[in-house]
Amino acid sequence: MKNFIRFGMMLAMLLSVTGPIVVAKNSFAATKKQIPPAPTEGTPALDRNYGTGSLINQISIQSTQYLMTGNSYISKSGTVLTVSGDTQAYSSVDTIAVDLYLQRWDAANSRWVDVVHAGEYQNYNASFVSASRGINSVAGYYYRTRAHHWVVKNGSVEQGDTASSYVFVE
After folding, report:
1. Of 64, 77, 62, which Cα lies nearest the Cα of 134?
2. How confident is the model over 64-90, as pLDDT tens digits?
């Protein structure tokens, strides 16, 4: 009991010299990272880890003789993004290709910016080509895949562009 009284007296003297000690309620809580506003252009992915885009709606408006469709995809695992795409023709063409880009949303300028050219992939005397590439990304941004699809048959070129829906990398 004597030690308890002595401790109480020492604590009272300490507080009279230093004043009360106040600890803020959330001072030790981890701060939650803020997610930036969503892009004002493009479509959010329905699945937080996977986005798609297609030429199907675009081609139904315009007539193409050789180019059937093209698709672009993005998937994420942590900060590793996989950009991929494919192009399909109605029948075998001389050259069929897909050109892939990783884009990041530039919020300051309200636009999508190509950050990595993932490559141009071609197939010859074929009706289909597909490709994909894994890319390390920086967390805290929205990303999507942009793809340029094209075919050549007897010197005639048909082409179109797609952009996948976007994903956020945490």
Report:
1. 77
2. 999 999 999 999 999 999 999 999 999
**SS3 call for 11:** helix
Q: Where are the domains of the chain?
A: 50-169
Strands 67-77 and 50-54 turn out to be antiparallel
pLDDT digit string (tens) for 93-127?
999 999 999 999 999 999 999 999 999 999 999 99
User: CATH for 50-169, among 1.10.10.410, 3.40.50.80, 2.20.25.110, 2.60.40.10?
Assistant: 2.60.40.10
For the chain, state the CA radius of gyration.
28
Distance CA 158, CA 96 (A): 10
Helix (H) or strand (E) holding 18: helix 2-18
Q: How far apart are the first and last CA of the chain?
A: 55
Please give the share of the chain, as a percent, with pLDDT higher than 90: 74
Using H for helix, E for strand and C for coil, what is the string for 110-164?
Answer: CEEEEEEEEEEEEEEEEEEEEEEEEEECCCCEEEEEEEEEEEEECCEEEEEEEEC
